[in-house]
Amino acid sequence: MSPQQALTIAREKGLDLVEISPTATPPVCRIMDYGRYHYQEQKRTREARKNQKSIELKEIKFRPKVDEHDYNFKKKHIERIVAEGDKVKATIFFRGREMAHPDFGRRILERLMDDLEGIAAAETRPSMQGNQMHIILSGVAGAKKGQGG
Questions:
Q1: CA distance 55 to 42
Q2: Which of the residues 2, 3, 119, 126 has the least number of beta carbons within 10 Å of its own beta carbon?
């Protein structure tokens, strides 16, 4: 059908003539309500964006001489964050003379890794940056959501 015929049919029906494939010979066109089509496409992309989950990096701070209760409380908090699908940066903050004993902080982070085995995995080894030692933990693929807590 010639483009002029298609255009007159579209106008009679109160619709638009939309070119689908301009590179094809002859070009492929469709008679449709373009405004409605455009609205539905926007709606689909908005819905897809809404269902997307962005992963955040949350930080939990420890001290080298952390008490048992504080350690367990923060460990459960890390389990909950990882179960939600976010990553956790566990940080040991050293002050003054504590800088002379980085092994205390390393022990805490290694204990944390052992306690969270099966729930969270370490993406990096414990590393020292200035007066802080940190490790990044992320959820294990096989771990169940809502576990721990």
A1: 24
A2: 2
Paired tokens of 52 = 């997307």
The owner of tokens 């050293």 is: 94
12: left (phi over 0), alpha (psi -120 to 50) or beta: alpha
**pTM strictly above 0.70:** no
92 and 130 Cβ atoms separated by less than 8 Å: no
Confirm if 135 and 78 have CB atoms less than 8 A apart. Answer: no
Packing angle of the helix pair 68-83, 102-115 (nearest 10 deg): 50
Which CATH fold topology does 3-50 show?
Ubiquitin-like (UB roll) (3.10.20)
Has residue 121 got a pLDDT over 70?
yes
Query: Does the domain made of 57-139 have the CATH classification 3.30.110.10?
Result: yes
Q: Provide the 10 A C-beta neighbour count for residue 109.
A: 21
Of 63, 64, 39, 122, give the one whose Cα is nearest residue 88.
122
Report the distance separating Cα 31 and Cα 19, nearest Å.
9
